[in-house]
Amino acid sequence: MIGMIKAKLGEGSVVTESSNEARELFNKGRFGAIKKSRVVLSLFEALFLIEKGKLDVFLGKKSLSEDSFATRANKKIKHFITKYVVFRDLRDRGYIVKTALKFGADFRVYDKGINPGDDHAKWIVFPVHESEHLTWHEFASKNRVAHSTKKRLLIGIVDDEEDVTYYEIAWKRP
Fold first, then answer.
1. Confidence of residue 140 (pLDDT cuts 50, 70, 90)
2. pLDDT tens profile 43-85
3. Were both Cys, which of 13, 41, 83, 168 would link to 45 (CB 3.0–4.6 Å)?
4. Are 88 and 75 in contact (CB under 8 A)?
5. Last residue of a domain, one of 75, 90, 125
6. Is 120 one of the catalytic residues?
7. Is residue 174 part of a domain?
8. Which of 12, 167, 30, 157 is nearest to 86 (CA)?
9. Residues 48, 11 within the same domain
10. Is the residue at 148 inside a domain?
């Protein structure tokens, strides 16, 4: 069992201590990426692990609470909470979720049993709060990104109770 791991909040990520527990977190759950014997976590992964009681994140010498961490992350990433709700839901369902900024999406999701590096992600995901509006151009753009990266498009719609409804969108030829 993995004990509490200490980490430091950086500009856009969280870096763990160099420990066997941190590396085990990567090996067993595919959280973060290993860099110089430490695990570098996205802000989404870090908040998830804080909530699960696996990670203690520090800013200087001060340990950050869940709320304090989420508030700071929300200032760094637009719509962080909406995106995080989708991230948490997918991780709780057993999927490995990674950021997908280089693909022009919020997340890439690997099918169950598939680890990053073993195969490609199956979906790219765009979280949206139910009160947001997408134009047809924005919707088509998201569809184009999925098509060009050879992934399926998932739109995760988050309601005010933090329930998520997923819609998979696919290109069809007439």
1. confident
2. 999 999 999 999 999 999 999 999 999 999 999 999 999 999 9
3. 41
4. no
5. 75
6. yes
7. no
8. 157
9. yes
10. yes
